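Hi C.,

You asked whether I'd gotten around to modeling the 170-residue construct. I have! Everything is below, sequence then structure, no commentary in between.
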Amino acid sequence: MHVSNLGWPVLIALGASVSQGDEVKLSTTAETYVRLADAFRGRPAVMFYEDRASTTLNQELKDRLFAVGKEKGLLDAVSIVAIANVSAYDWVPARQFVIAAVKDTEKKIGVPVYLDWTGVMTQQPWSLKGNSSTVVLVDRSGAVRYAKQGALKSADVEEVLGLLGTLIAE
């Protein structure tokens, strides 16, 4: 279990509950809104929060998650919560271009991508850094079990996969 270089106040302490962020609402590419807590759906989840320039920082983890999940038949046992920090593009016509590009990404990866138009994830209670990639692992009760900002090293990827395996088995 690991939290580093985050400076998060209350929510992103190990064991803190995602439900503390119940009021956080994010947009879908269909331009409807969802509560972040509902995206976790009572099962272990890996959340990625990234801006456009950071989407490849943790590609190794993304690739390994899919490969291991497919190999072991666990793709439905875990929620992947992908959130794009698109606050820099909340103006016309950029907004429509962003939605179109994210829809294409959703089709390619098979995972919904939630859109943070207002930077709500950079505010309390989450207080994530808007110009990086952040990985957060949440257990089925909604407690944060791992969080790290920036590019994960191979050892970090192994730690996340190991912890995720434990959480699936619980």
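If it helps when you're writing up: The longest strand covers residues 45-51.

Thanks,
B.
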